[in-house]
Every structure is written in structure tokens, then in C-alpha cells.
């Protein structure tokens, strides 16, 4: 029952306390404040890894909650059920500006200068420097490890906030290349660029190749530049879906899939050849929200009317000179021209009429030196404690941002994934850590395994009974991702987050026709009327089909009813907005599936309020959860799908995994990749079809990874492409039309760091 939430007893033990105190005393002798922070972080991480399952009685749970003085999340020690949803927070907290820039006073400036003056050598750089970095491809929602050179959203956002207050930073220069992130992350980045610009410093965007999403982000900057030969294309938006039924028929595979919810489109990928009307309806609604936000931002940033933006897109302008002439770009510059301009800004040296030869020589000598720049990796090492107005360091109470990203699966293999074994120990450790006042659960997931989602839902509810949990949604938090978020006390989503999809898909593959084609036979000896329910060598019997349908309906009703209870809605009201339908964050707010619009900082503000922390009290914000590096998956196709399938089965793969391999091979065969083997035509066809074959195989592999035979899945599939950026995919989702024939690469990107010259600061990779 949802109301019977049990708290967890805090870790105890004299030996453990003695060990911790001894380590802390030794560290404190060297640097007391740093040692205390390091000790708290070490304890948190150790508990997350070593936590074992303990069950407490209801009486013990009440004692713990009362002794912590935070039983209902408001600090009064009461065990009454905490208020949930938007009604538990002041209206102004839900709608006020999320990131309001506050100029530091003189004493704060002195403190910042003092801290920066004694910074470690590898954190130092020259005054009047430019923070320069490149945004391209995937930007992880989780922090990256030291040896991972990729960009993470937490590091990027914190760098922009620090740079706004850092007296050494004169401005920011960003090269925006084709992005492989969703609109939710783009809006979070834009919000932090707005914060930086509020400090009065300049922010420069440079684009070599850009579509609608990249241009949208660039308009947040104060200046936009591109080389004359840049690929800038604003042609509108395309929404699409992919369907595998034709591929499966060629292979000889019959998908027997049950999906509950008229909008639940995950099964459509396997069952249909064309898009259903319900799918067309929900995709059209989401696309309309994306288009409206694009028009609003571009028109506001450039001082143009909405109709002017529409007319420009409809004109299909491809000449960059027209971009400049119409005021859609600041100027057409190559990168070296931008470097020269920034050198003059950082040094204050410009050509002056009538200057002496001595002054000219001095100016030219100074401008010949490398640009004063600092890269994102080096700048990320600057401590936020030097900037008190950020409000993220220096407090005794901590708010932990627990970031989860990827598909929800039972066990992690490779790549980004959310698993109970990875998340639940952290939740239990956070419940027991008395220094943690509240938790922000960051979710970036299309869902996945139903059991895993439910186990984590339960633990999130358990944690929320001890201290407030606020959910923050990134690009996508749908189906199982929403299942996790709905356990929190309140939900915050970006206006263009993809969420909802409260529905179920389950099924199995009937491989009898494939087996017959390749001469493979399987015979089963069973006991029990439904023992062969999931057999892959035959179709369902009537009784089996009825049982299968009933189990899927049960899984859906469980999801829907828990969603209704979690959101304090009547079941009938939840049914009206469930049915597997996906919503943008804007639409989800209207139907009460989320409580506020915004990003992580909005969620932190709600967590602070729910924990009863005064607005003027400093807290420490701690990030928990890092990207797990994984090798790149290589997907190829064979000449005969049946042979590939048979080989995979004989090697011990499950039928679903073998199907993923065979699907790619079948698509390759159907497009002529098997004809004229070794000939020029075959090679050309293979090269042309490779992206499509890879995409088809990835679609099948993604389904196979989550859709285990007979197990219910809370999964969003073909709508996932909605979270993919323009230019990163040509097969589906809301993307810029320019991406349909474009590449996801940098389009002739520069070697090394953006705006980096030989000998410039930040050239050393470990800096």
C-alpha cells in the first residue's frame, strides 16, 4: 500500500565511527574544511557501494523519522503524510525566474578575488580571458570521469554560472556544431547562457554547420558568426517514425505483441508498416510545441516578428550572405578573424588613427601572441566555493542531485543504463546520511523493464518518507522513466521534455516460419497448461492468448493506478491522460502530470523549500552519478538473414538478440547489398545503405534488450527520436529538415580545441 512507507535505520557501529573519525582527524590537520567535505563525500559513496538490505519494523521507522526531525520533510518531526504536487509549494516558487543573476557586492568580490588568488597553479589563467569550448554531438546528463573527454551538462552549466561571476573571464565563445541531444538539454543550456549574459559580458556563437536546433541555441548568444561557406539551413521540422514489420516478414518472424494504451506506439514498430492515426496525433502535437518554441525564441532574440521568422524559414535560404543581410547573423567570419577580434578585446589594443610606429610595433607584437583563452575542461576545476552568490557550496546541509540516465534494465551490460542494483543502494545511503537534507532525482530515460522500474519506484517513495525527493526531467522521462519520477514529491520538467507514455508493451516472437526456412527444428517436452506460453517455435493458442492479454492488462492497470495515487488523481482522471500517450513538458503541466517547468535549479529550489531550509541559508549541492564508458557497438549485415539468425542461435544468443542481428542482414539483402558480391555496384549499394541498415539493426537491438519474452515493459521506442537533435538522425523524430540529407559530423571541424592556437593556454590535455 502506498501509504505504508517505512523509513530506514541509520548506519551505526562504534568501530565504523572510530575509523571515520580517525581518518577525518588526520585530514583535518592538513586542511580542516576540505577534509570535512571530502569525508562526507567518501562516506556517501562508500555507503552507496556497500549498503546491504535491512528491513525495519514500522515502530523503528517511526522512531528514526522522529529522531531525525524530518519525518514529513518539513522539519517538525511529525509522521503525517507530506504534501505532494504543486499545491505543496508557493505559486511564485513554481513560476518565478529560475536563474536570476545577482551581482556580487564589494565584500563578495573581495572574497572571490582572495580565493582565486590562492588557487592551485593548474586552476590559474590570465586576466581578461575568454572561456572557449565546442558543443557537438552527445552531451551527457551525468558527470563524466576524469579520463572521459566528453562534455557533460553539469560541468557545462556550472562553468557558465562561475564564468558570469569570475573577474578573470571577459566573455564566452562557443562553437556550436551538430548536436545529438534533445530539446530538454538545449533549453537547460540556453537558460545558463542567459544567466551568463545577464552579467553584462559578451557571449559569441560560431557555427560551421547548423540546423534548427543549433541555430536556436546560438540565438541565446549576444553575437553569431559563421564562415561564408558555412552550411546553415533552416527549412523547418520533420517528425517521423520507423516500422520493422516489413523486415520481420522477410526474415520469417511473427511478432506477437500486446500493447495496452491506444497511444502506446512501441508495439507499432513491430506490428505495423505505417503510422497509426493516434501516433500521428501525438507526434503532431509535440512537433507543434517545438515549432512554437523555436519561433518564439528566434523572434525574441533577433527582434523580429513571428511572421518574419516563418517567412525566412519558408524561403529556404541557403546563401550565408542572405543570413547576414537580413540580420540573421552578426557577420561572416572565418575562425582566424574571430580570434583576431577576440585578441583585440582581451588586450584592449586596436588600430588607432595616427598611432606612432612604436605603438604599432607594440600592438602587433601583443596581438601575435596566442589568444587568452581557457578551455572548459580546465575551467571546470575552478572551485564553486570562490563564488558565494552561486549558493551551491559552503553550507552544512546538502542537497544531492542523483542523476540517472539510459534505458531501465534488470542488469547493466555496457553503455548507459539504469538498474535497480545501481540506483537502490544510493537511495538507501541517501536516506541514512544525516547531512543530506533533500534529494533531486534527475531522470533521463525512455523507460524499460517494468519490474526494475517498480522496484526503484518503491525505494524512491521510501526515501521521500524520510526526506524530500524532487524529480527533474531531462530530454525524456517517459514510460518507465515517468514511473520513477512520479514517486517523487514533485516533478519538474523542461517545456520540451518528452514525458508521459503511461502504458505497457509485452510480447514474444514466433520464429516457426524462420526455422522452417533455414531447416532448423525445435521440439519441447513440457508439463503444465501454460508451460509453453513463451515458446518461440509456435504461435499462441487461444487460452494462451487470453492469459497473455490479461497479464498485460494487469501490468497496465498497476502502472496507471500507482500513477494516480502518486499524483493524487482519481483513477478515471489518470486514465484520460494515460493510454500510452506522450506529452511535451508544456502539455504535461496542463494535464497535471508534472508540477512545474524548469531545470535542475528549479528542482533544487523546491527541494530546499520542502526540506524547510531558509532561503538565505547556504547549502552544498552535491552531484552523484557518473557516465559509465562503453565500447562502440559495431553493427553489420550478412548476405543471408536466415544463416545469420541460425549462427546467432547456435552461439547461444536468445531468439530476440539473434533477431536483432538478422534484421540488419535482411535489410541489407533487401536493398541489394548481397547482389554482385565483390562488384562496384554492390560496394556502392552497401555504402549507401549502411546508415539505414545500422538504424534498423539498432532499433531491433534496442527492443530486444528490453522486450524480453513475456515480461512487461514500460517503454518508449519510436518516439525516442524526438529527443535526438537536428542533424543527428535521418530516420525519425522532430528534427530539422536540413538533417535529412546532412551528416552528424562537424562538417570540417577544427583540429584541437575551439579558438586554440599553438602555445595558447589550455593546450595541455591534462589542464
Automatic annotation (TrEMBL):
Record's compositionally biased regions (Low complexity): 50-69
Domain Peptidase S49: 197-343, 462-612
A GO molecular function held by the record: serine-type peptidase activity
Leader sequence segment: none
Protein name as annotated: Peptidase S49 domain-containing protein
One Pfam entry name: Peptidase_S49
Top-rank taxon, per record: Eukaryota
Amino acid at each position: 500500500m502506498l501509504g505504508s512507507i517505512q523509513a530506514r535505520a541509520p548506519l551505526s557501529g562504534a568501530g565504523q565511527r572510530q575509523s571515520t573519525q580517525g581518518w577525518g582527524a588526520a585530514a583535518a590537520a592538513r586542511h580542516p574544511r576540505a577534509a570535512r567535505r571530502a569525508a562526507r563525500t567518501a562516506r556517501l559513496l562508500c555507503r552507496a557501494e556497500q549498503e546491504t538490505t535491512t528491513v525495519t519494523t514500522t515502530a523503528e521507522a517511526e522512531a528514526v523519522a522522529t529522531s531525525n526531525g524530518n519525518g514529513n520533510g518539513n522539519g517538525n518531526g511529525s509522521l503525517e503524510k507530506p504534501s505532494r504536487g504543486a499545491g505543496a509549494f508557493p505559486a511564485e516558487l513554481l513560476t518565478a525566474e529560475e536563474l536570476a543573476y545577482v551581482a556580487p557586492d564589494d565584500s563578495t568580490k573581495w572574497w572571490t578575488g582572495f580565493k582565486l588568488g590562492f588557487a592551485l597553479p593548474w586552476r590559474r589563467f590570465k586576466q581578461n580571458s575568454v572561456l572557449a569550448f565546442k558543443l557537438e554531438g552527445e552531451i551527457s546528463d551525468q558527470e563524466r570521469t576524469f579520463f572521459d573527454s566528453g562534455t557533460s551538462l553539469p560541468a557545462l552549466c556550472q562553468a557558465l554560472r562561475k564564468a558570469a561571476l569570475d573577474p578573470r573571464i571577459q566573455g564566452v565563445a562557443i562553437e556550436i556544431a551538430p548536436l545529438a541531444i534533445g530539446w530538454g538539454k538545449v533549453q537547460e543550456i540556453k537558460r545558463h547562457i542567459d544567466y551568463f549574459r545577464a552579467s553584462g559580458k559578451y557571449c559569441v556563437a560560431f557555427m560551421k554547420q547548423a540546423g534548427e536546433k543549433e541555430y536556436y541555441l546560438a540565438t541565446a548568444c549576444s553575437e553569431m558568426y559563421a564562415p561564408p561557406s558555412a552550411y546553415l539551413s533552416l527549412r523547418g521540422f520533420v517528425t517521423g517514425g520507423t516500422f520493422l514489420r516489413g523486415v520481420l516478414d522477410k526474415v520469417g518472424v511473427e511478432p506477437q505483441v500486446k500493447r495496452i494504451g491506444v497511444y502506446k506506439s512501441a508495439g507499432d514498430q513491430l506490428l505495423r508498416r505505417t503510422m497509426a492515426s493516434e501516433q500521428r496525433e501525438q507526434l503532431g502535437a509535440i512537433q507543434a510545441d517545438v515549432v512554437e518554441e523555436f519561433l518564439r525564441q528566434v523572434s525574441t532574440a533577433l527582434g523580429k516578428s513571428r511572421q518574419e521568422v516563418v517567412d525566412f524559414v519558408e524561403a529556404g535560404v541557403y546563401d550565408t550572405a542572405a543570413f547576414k543581410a537580413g540580420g540573421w547573423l552578426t557577420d561572416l567570419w572565418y575562425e582566424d578573424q574571430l580570434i583576431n577580434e577576440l585578441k583585440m578585446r582581451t588586450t584592449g589594443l586596436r588600430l588607432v588613427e595616427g598611432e606612432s610606429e612604436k605603438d604599432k610595433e607594440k600592438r602587433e607584437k601583443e596581438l601575435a601572441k596566442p589568444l587568452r583563452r581557457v578551455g572548459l575542461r580546465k575551467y571546470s576545476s575552478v572551485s564553486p566555493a570562490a563564488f558565494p552568490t552561486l549558493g551551491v557550496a559552503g553550507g552544512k546541509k546538502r542537497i544531492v542531485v542523483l542523476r540517472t540516465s539510459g534505458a531501465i534494465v534488470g542488469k547493466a551490460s555496457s553503455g548507459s543504463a539504469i538498474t535497480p542494483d545501481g540506483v537502490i543502494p544510493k537511495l538507501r545511503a541517501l536516506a541514512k546520511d544525516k547531512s543530506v537534507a533533500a534529494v533531486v532525482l534527475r531522470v533521463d530515460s525512455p523507460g524499460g523493464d517494468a519490474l526494475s522500474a517498480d522496484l526503484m519506484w518503491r525505494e524512491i517513495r521510501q526515501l521521500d518518507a524520510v526526506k524530500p525527493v524532487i524529480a527533474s526531467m531531462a530530454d525524456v522521462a517517459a514510460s518507465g522513466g515517468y514511473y520513477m519520477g512520479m514517486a517523487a514529491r514533485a516533478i519538474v520538467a523542461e517545456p520540451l521534455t518528452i514525458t508521459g507514455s503511461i502504458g505497457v508493451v509485452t510480447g514474444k516472437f514466433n520464429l516457426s516460419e524462420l526455422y522452417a526456412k533455414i531447416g532448423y527444428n525445435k521440439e519441447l517436452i513440457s508439463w503444465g497448461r501454460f508451460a509453453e506460453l513463451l515458446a518461440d517455435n509456435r504461435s499462441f493458442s487461444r487460452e494462451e492468448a487470453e492469459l497473455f492479454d490479461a497479464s498485460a492488462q494487469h501490468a497496465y492497470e498497476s502502472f496507471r493506478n500507482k500513477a494516480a495515487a502518486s499524483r493524487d488523481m482519481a483513477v478515471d482522471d489518470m486514465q484520460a491522460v494515460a493510454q500510452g500517450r506522450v506529452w511535451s513538458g508544456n502539455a504535461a503541466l496542463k494535464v497535471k502530470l508534472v508540477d512545474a517547468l524548469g531545470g535542475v535549479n528549479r528542482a533544487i529550489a523546491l527541494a530546499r523549500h520542502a526540506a524547510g531550509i531558509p532561503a538565505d541559508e547556504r547549502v552544498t549541492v552535491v552531484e552523484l552519478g557518473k557516465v559509465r564508458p562503453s565500447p562502440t557497438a559495431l553493427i553489420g549485415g550478412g548476405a543471408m538473414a536466415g544463416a545469420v539468425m541460425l549462427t546467432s542461435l547456435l552461439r547461444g544468443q536468445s531468439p530476440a538478440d539473434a533477431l536483432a542481428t538478422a534484421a540488419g542482414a535482411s535489410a541489407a539483402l533487401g536493398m541489394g547489398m548481397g547482389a554482385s558480391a565483390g562488384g562496384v555496384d554492390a560496394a556502392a549499394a552497401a555504402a549507401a545503405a549502411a546508415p539505414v541498415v545500422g538504424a534498423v539493426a539498432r532499433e531491433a537491438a534496442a527492443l530486444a534488450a528490453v522486450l524480453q519474452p513475456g515480461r512487461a515493459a514500460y517503454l518508449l521506442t519510436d518516439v525516442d527520436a524526438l529527443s535526438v537533435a537536428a542533424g543527428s538522425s535521418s530516420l525519425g523524430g522532430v528534427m530539422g529538415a536540413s538533417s535529412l540529407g546532412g551528416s552528424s559530423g562537424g562538417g570540417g571541424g577544427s583540429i584541437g580545441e575551439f579558438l586554440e592556437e599553438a602555445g595558447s593556454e589550455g593546450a595541455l590535455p591534462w589542464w
